[in-house]
């Protein structure tokens, strides 16, 4: 029964059916399952599938957003029941679209996938100035900073942030992504990593944290 | 009939300009600044860019209004200056436009997500685009260019706004990338759907812009050509940028681009030009190729 329901929950997330996702989450709680079990064995496996399908161009941005909404609906009930350690799991990432850039769809998908993989994600939103990044890194004791840019006119700001981190001797891993970003660019500005898509971003974050990757 | 469409109908292939954004950067736009505000604070720079493109052989230049819509300008606190920016941009382009050449009013996406995925209601998006295209027509553009669209719904709303609020011809373009599912936008829109949706919305010219470079653009145009009788526009990026000496530099030089541009012409486009990373040297090269192409096809 519980196994079945967890599977249905994964499917509800994959299909982006938020009503169903909410209903099953409540049912599982009534049956005595812990929030952590529901998250790890129902919601997250669903989002894993979404991530792989997105990477493989089986689904596109709209479908991912619909799935994310279903997951969020369930997570809203689970979050108060989860302990801090349940949420922190893999590490803490501060993420944002850099100054001057308002494009956040890719960044939002990456944030969601990272959350789905057990990272605690602090999303600073769009148009993020270096000071805001620094403040969040300090307050949250973040392990990784993730920066996104869609415009060639804003990607240079990533360099500004990385240089500032260095000059202030802040020891943190840096990862970047976005349409105009390449591995070569990441190397040039001394970022620790570049991810081509949300699925790779999760892999990269785990690598940066020294977490063994699960076989696919 | 509108002079722009009339010229296109003669079968002549028109040459558009190259990038505005990356050129602005080269000429002093700071990282993160509002490009459209430069129409007011640095009109001489915008003027130079247009002039350089006309001198390189462009038949059409695009106004510096890609992001001059209320939703995008809001980021900089300029949401109430849509009309001012559009009028200024058009005036600058017109002031250097030779007789018989054209000024196109650039219209980019809102940058927001439409309902129900996001929070932007359809009617609001329609109002946002209407405000921009009306200002562009008032300023005196010859044609509206809707470009870099990724969601079919937003593209259609923009096209409708242009068709219903102006008497100008409308170009509708989207940005495709090659993935495992073929050529699609980030929203999953394939070329066939893009052609259908834009056609239903009544656009006069259909095409593609931006993207990963000229090789992919060749594939896009080859797929699109058999699907429509309408004129097709192709404006590719000059490859993918690399970061050199603190600037994003695009990898496809005019020489690398040349044979690929020729292939795009052979695939049957009616307007060719460039997007991010292309500059007046690319356009000059395209002019040579285009002149040769036209000569061989008389």
Q: How does this model look, in words?
A:
The complex is a heterodimer of chains A (216) and B (298). Chain A is globular. Chain A has helices at residues 2-15, 18-30, 35-55, 61-78, 84-88, 105-116, 130-140, 156-167, 183-188, 198-209; strands at residues 91-97, 119-123, 144-148, 173-177, 193-194. The model of chain A has no long low-confidence stretch (mean pLDDT 90). Chain A has 216 residues and is of the alpha/beta class. A five-stranded parallel sheet of chain A has the order 2-1-3-4-5, sandwiched between helices. Chain A has two domains: 2-84, Methionine synthase domain (Methyltransferase, Methionine Synthase (B12-binding Domains), Chain A, domain 1); 89-209, 3-Layer(aba) Sandwich (Rossmann fold). In chain B, helix 10 (214-224) links the parallel strand 8 and strand 9. The radius of gyration of chain B is 18 Å and the shape is globular. The A-B interface holds A 56-63, 65-66, 98-103, 105, 126-127, 151-157, 159-160, 180, 182, 184-185, 188-189 and B 21-22, 24-25, 29, 31-33, 35, 72, 75, 111, 113, 117-118, 150-151, 179-181, 184-188, 240-243, 246-248, 276-277.
Helix content of chain A: 55-70%
CATH C-level label of the largest domain in chain A: Alpha Beta
Distance between the termini of chain A: 27 Å
What sequence of helices (H) and strands (E) makes up the elements of chain A? Answer: HHHHHEHEHEHEHEH
Total beta-strand segments of chain B: 12
In CATH terms, what is the fold-level topology of the largest domain in chain A? Rossmann fold
Please tell me the overall pLDDT of chain B: 95
